[in-house]
Amino acid sequence: GADMNEELYSTLKSKFGFNQFRHRQKQCILSTLMGHDTFVLMPTGAGKSLCYQLPAVILPGVTVVVSPLRSLIEDQKMKMKELGIGCEALTADLTASAHEEIYSDLSSENPTIKLLYVTPEKISASGRLSSVFYTLHRRGLLARFVIDEAHCVSQWGHDFRPDYTKLNTLREKYNNPPVPIIALTATATPKIVTDARDHLKMQDSKLFISSFVRDNLKYDLIPKAAKSLVNVVEKMKQLYPGKSGIVYCLSRKECETVQMMLTKAGLSAEVYHAGLNDNLRVSVQKSWLANKFDVICATIAFGMGIDKPDVRFVIHYSLPKSIEGYYQETGRAGRDGMPSYCLMLYSYHDSIRLRRMIEEGNTTTGVRSMHLNNVLQVVAYCENVSVCRRKMLVEHFGEVYDEQSCRNSKTPCDICERQRKNVEAIRLFDVS
Ligand code: ADP
Ligand code: MG
Ligand code: ZN
């Protein structure tokens, strides 16, 4: 009722420092607070975390958050601690004594931990953790399960994690009384959503979807030529002095090649990929967050969960692996809502390279043909000369989009911009 509403707003303000809910945050929060299983689809940067962090603060008990990556977990834990919210993370690198401290807090009468982040491996591998969950549940202190990045459960997603599939037991194991589950993802292709809901036994969940249109992103595409990358980055530097961007590459080696190319042209660039050791990775991340260099040359290992609001450009030096991947990767630009630039440097040859990588990969025929099909969709996106890019991107997620909105926006895509110019040219011709 009214009290609940008031409490939501006062907690939003006092604990998180925000005045308003965004998008469908409030509906999602109410749904999960009422005990419904809840499935949340919102684009990256929309503010999904608040949908479980705020309920965790309001209700007694411990909220368990499953998250796929340590970097993501560390990032969230730091934020929660800054806000004075009791938060711990169980990850593989913890010392034995740190483990003990967490377990002993969870077994205490009044755990100080409100949010417990865990990797899915931890849940499936640790019998001790399961028994801690059981005890919490019995004592009525297991507030909620959160499955962040829920698309990882689906084979059809770009981020399949086998350990996520083991989360399919949560719904049944903790059913008396039921512990609500909230699953969140920025991947909204209907096939993956259905698959994930089935897997997690969340068929009865309430589904919340917000628009995937990113009004402040300008999507562009040009053919990839020898100097195009350097030229574009130089232009970006003039347009957005002191700001930085991402150049996505297909492989570690390509990251290094691109870094060299940029450095030779007097630009500053660092590489980021799964091959870096932890220290290096953290230090690159830090200086990138502080805009210490112009460009980060990265494989898709970079990005998930790194919340930098002022990324002004994302350039694909090589083809993304899928339309979804492209949407996610470009989505890291302009999280602050300011105009930002997303450029694809296209070469058909890259699609052949990508297909070769997939064909050589070690996987089942079904998964391979799905990946190949994904690449074909990307090629179709790139070779398209008539359909608005925003339209193509969001319609991939099942959303309907009127390209007039793109055409009339401050950041029309290259296709819409060209058509706008054509229309203006014809008008001029009419007058004369
Ligand atoms: P997602 O998980 O959907 O990608 P996050 O939960 O990481 O997004 O949130 C993205 C950013 O938006 C964070 O910096 C967060 O603090 C901010 N944010 C979330 N909700 C609000 C709100 N209601 N008002 C202002 N900022 C918000
Ligand atoms: Mg998130
Ligand atoms: Zn358009």
Automatic annotation (TrEMBL):
This is ATP-dependent DNA helicase. It is found in: Nucleus. Residues 228-376 form the Helicase C-terminal domain. Residues 29-206 form the Helicase ATP-binding domain. It comes from Caenorhabditis brenneri. The lineage of its organism: Eukaryota, Metazoa, Ecdysozoa, Nematoda, Chromadorea. Belongs to the helicase family. RecQ subfamily.
